[in-house]
Amino acid sequence: MKTKRIITLSLFALLMTFSTVSTYAQDKPSRSFSGQKDSKDKKDNGGKSGGAETPPPPAPRMDGDYLRVVVHRAGELKGQITPDIQKRVRRFVVEGYLNSEDIRAIRRVCDRSSCVNARGTSVTNYVDLDLSRAYFTNTYMMNRNCVGKEMFYDLRALRSIRLPIDIREISNRAFYNCPRLESVEMPQGVRVLGNEAFRNCPELQVVTMPSTLESIGNLCFSGCRKLQRISLPYSLMTIGNEAFADCNLTEIYLPEGLRSIGANCFANNHIRTLTIPRNTEIVDGNPGNSNALEAIHVSNGNRYHSSSNGVLFDTQCSTLQMFPGNLIGSYSIPNSVRAIGPYAFAGSRLTQINIPESVTMIGTGAFCNCSSIRNIILPSSVTQISAHAFQGCINLTSINLSAQTRVIGDYAFDGCTVLSNIFLPESVTQLGALSFRECRGLNTLRLPYAISVIPKECFRNCANLVSIQLPGSLKEIQSESFRGCLALSSVQLPQTLKKIGEEAFRSCTSLHEIVIPASVTDIDSKPFTKCHVLSRVVSMSPVPPTLKSHDNKDVPLYVPANSVSTYKKAKGWKKFKKVYAL
Q1: 273 within 8 A of 252, measured Cβ to Cβ
Q2: C-alpha triplet 18, 20, 23: angle, nearest 5°
Q3: Pairwise CA distance, residues 286 & 279, whole Å
Q4: Confidence band for 54, pLDDT divided at 50, 70 and 90
Q5: Burial 75-96 (b: 16+ CB within 10 A, else e)
C-alpha cells in the first residue's frame, strides 16, 4: 500500500514538472523559436506547416488596459485579439514573429474609433504599442529589417510605438497621417527614413534618432507641428526636400558630416539662425525660410555657399540664394549678384528692394508673398519674369518692367490685388498662364503686338478691367482667359484670331456685344456663359466655326445674309432661337 502511494506521488510530481516547463516555454519566446525548422517550411501562410494543424492558443487575459501577447507562430495574433480586447487595450505589447496577417490585426486595434474600460465606460482612445521584442518575417509582403510602405499609416488611435530591434529602414509613408502619434522609439541600426514616413503626424513630439541614421527622405516630418526639437546624429548624410517643413522647430544643429539639405527643408519653422556645415550643399540654394529666421551662417571652407550679413549666396556671391524672412526695412542687392535664386525673398517683410543692373535673371517665386512691397523697378538687364515671381504681393501697386522684357511667366503677378500701374513693353512676346489672375486694380491694359496667345485664366477675376487692347497678331484666346472680368463692357477681337477657348469670357457681366471675326474656326464650350447682359452675338464667317456648346440660346445671333440657313442647321449654332442676317 505504501509502495503504491509513493508511485502515485512520483507520477503527480512528474506531471507538474512537465506542465511548468511547457508553460514557461510558451511565455518566454526566443530568437530561435521560429528560426530553425519552421523558417524552412513557413512563408506568409499564417504560421502553418506540414503535418496536423494545431488549434490556436487561447486569448490572453488583460490586466486593466494592459495586454501582453506572445505570438508563437506567425499569423496567430488575429485569433488572440477578441472583440473585447480590441475595444479595451491601450498598453499593447506584442512579442514573437509577425507576418502580414499579424500586422493587419495590430492595425485593427490601432485604428479603432473608440475605447472602453472593463465596465464598458468610454475612455480616452489611444494605443501605446511595444514591438521591441517582436520580429518581422521575411516574405514577399514583408522584410524582417524594414517597416514597410504604409505599414502603420492613417491609424487613428496609435499614440506611441517602440519598433523591433532588427529594423534598419522605415519606408515611405510608414506612419503617414497618424493624428494621435506622439512618440517613436527607433532601435540602433536604423539607417533610412523614407519619403513622408511621418508626414502629417500633428501630435508627434518625441523622436529618438539612432546614431546609425544616414538618410531622411523628402517630406519625412512635414506637418509635424508639435515637433520642437530634434537631435540629428553625426552619421546623417542627407536630408530630403521639405523634410521638416511646417514643423515647430526652434533650433537645429546640423552635423559636420552632412552632405546635402533638400530644398525648403526647414520652411515655416521658428528657427532664428541656421548654420550650414563646411561640407553641406543645399538643393536649389534654399533651405527653407520663415518669419522667425534672422540669419544664415556658412562655415568657412564651404565649396557651395557663402553668407554676408546673414544673407545666403553661392561661393562667388553671383547668386543671391536666400534672404532671411525676419529682416525688415530696405535692402540693396550687391553689385556682384547676377541672379536672384528661386524663392530667394519669398515671404519677406522688406518694404523696399533695390536691384542693380548686374542682375539678369529673377528666379521662380523670387519675390512671391512679399506683402510689404509697394513698388519695384527692374533693371534693363532683366529680360524674363519667371513663374510665380511676384505672386501674392498684395500691396504691390506698380512695377516698371525693363524695355527688354520678353517673357512673363505663369502666375507671375497672380494675386497682386492692388496692382494698377503696369506697362507691358513691345518686347514682350509671351504671357504665362494665370499671370495676371486676381489683379483687381487693373483698369486698362494694352497687350504688345507680338503676343499670339492669351493663355488660360490669364486675366481671370480682373474685376475692374474696363478695357483691353488686343494685339493684331493674336491667334488664340484660351480657356477662362477673361472669366470674371465684371467691368469689361466690350472687346474687339482681331482679324487674326482663330480659336476661342472654353468659357473664355465666362461671367463678364457687363459685356453687351461680341463680334466673332471671320478668321475664327474653332470655339470651345460655353465661351459666353453667364454673360447676363449680352444682347447680341455676331459671327462674321460665312462658314459656321466649330462650336461645341453654348447656353446663350435666347441671345440674338447675327450672321452673313447668305449663311442664315447654314447656321440654323450647324451643330452648336442651331440652338440659337433667333438668327438674323447682317
Answers
A1: no
A2: 110
A3: 16
A4: low
A5: bbbeebbeeebeebbbbbbbbb
Residue 107's pLDDT band, with cuts at 50, 70 and 90, is very high
Question: Using an 8 Å Cβ cutoff, are 304 and 315 in contact?
Answer: yes
Map residue 219 onto helix, strand or coil.
Answer: coil
Residue 339 in contact with residue 316, Cβ under 8 Å? no
> How far apart are alpha carbons 577 and 388 in whole angstroms?
45
pLDDT, tens digit (0-9, with 9 covering 90-100), for 471-502:
999 999 999 999 999 999 999 999 999 999 99
Question: How distant, in Å, are the alpha carbons of 155, 310, 323, 524, 553 from that of 293?
Answer: 34, 10, 9, 49, 58
pLDDT of residue 437: 98
Residue with cell 555657399: 305
* pLDDT tens by residue, 125-153: 999 999 999 999 998 789 999 999 999 99
| CA angle, 133 then 134 then 139, to 5° | 155
| 105-152-138 Cα angle (round to 5) | 70
How far apart (Å, rounded) are the C-alpha atoms in residues 253 and 298? 13
- 251 close to 271: Cβ distance less than 8 angstroms: yes
CA angle 156, 161, 165 (to 5 degrees): 145
Q: Largest alpha-carbon pair distance within the chain?
A: 132
Contacts for 115 with CB less than 8 Å, ≥ 6 apart: 87, 88, 90, 122, 123, 124, 125, 126, 157
Residues with Cβ < 8 Å from 249, sequence gap 6 or more? Answer: 227, 228, 229, 230, 266, 269, 270, 271
d(CA 231, CA 579): 75
Check if the beta carbon of residue 557 is closer than 8 Å to that of residue 578: yes
| Cα–Cα distance measured from residue 147 to residue 152, given in angstroms and rounded to the nearest whole number | 8
C-alpha grid cell, residue 511: 459685356
Give the Cα separation of 476 and 84 in Å (integer).
Answer: 67
Nearest Cα to Cα of residue 246 among 275, 276, 226? 226
Assign 18 to helix, strand or coil: helix
Computed on alpha carbons and rounded to an integer, the radius of gyration of the chain in Å comes to 34
**Total H helices, total E strands in the chain:** 6, 42
Contact 112/156 with Cβ under 8 angstroms? yes
Place of cell 445671333: 557
The continuous run of DSSP H or E covering 21 comes out as helix 2-27
The residues facing 512 across adjacent strands are none
> For residue 208, what pLDDT is reported?
87
The sign one gets for the Cα dihedral 540, 542, 544, 550 is: positive
pTM reported for the whole predicted model: 0.81
Q: Residue 1 contacts by C-beta under 8 Å, 6 or more apart in sequence?
A: none
Q: What is the pLDDT of residue 55?
A: 64
Q: Which strand ranges, in their side-by-side order, compose the sheet holding 384-385?
A: 305-308, 311-314, 319-322, 339-340, 361-362, 384-385, 407-408, 430-431
Q: Which grid cell sits at 67?
A: 495586454
Distance of CA 253 to the CA centre of its chain: 25
For 231, how many CA atoms within 13 A lie in the half-sphere containing its CB? 8
Going by the DSSP 8-state scheme, the letter that residue 575 receives in this structure is G
